[in-house]
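Table S2 (continued). Query chain:
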Amino acid sequence: MANAPHPLFVTLPYKQERAAPDFTTNEDKYPETLVRHFIKHYSKKGDKVFDPFAGLGTTLFEAEKLGRAPYGIEADRDRYEWVAAQMENWTAMRHDDAFKMDKHDFPKFDLVLTSPPFMAASHKWNPLYNGDPKHAGYDVYLKRMTAIFKKLPPLMKKGATLIVHVDNLLIGHRYTPLVRDMADAVSKSFDLKSEIIVAWDTPPAADYKHTHCLVFKKA
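Corresponding output:
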């Protein structure tokens, strides 16, 4: 189904299938059901699937189970070691900043599927710099995100797809249109093709009934 059109609205079950490691929780992990759905639709067996923000490895684990070749990069050492230890080909997982992905000997990818760290516009703590106060602020976050995604196109095959999972944020009374801002940042290097709304048939919370996946093509 790698070339078939995808509907702009889909309903999936919300289920965290893999337990989180002792040092964190599943709060910042997207569910396996979503990852499986998009890997099946946008790739085929044997394809190379990459996650530049590997986190707890959901993209990599599901890609491996579905017969794809998973690759990833993760800045946090604990997460990197935990994920690499469970991969069949652990050398495909690299410990580094996503901004340095072009410094590694990765192959050309067929699909990139990722859920980048989110940041609220009202916050100073920038997850892309691990909270370094010298790089505080939402504007700095978006600038860095733009620079990171600019590194991706040379690592992808012609016609390859990039899928970015993202949510708008409401912290107290402060709203962050992160879906729009992420689309703008990534579109500096890719062609935005669609925004897919994923509704949860079993929402994990009253205020989290759906999520967003932005679909891009290599420009």
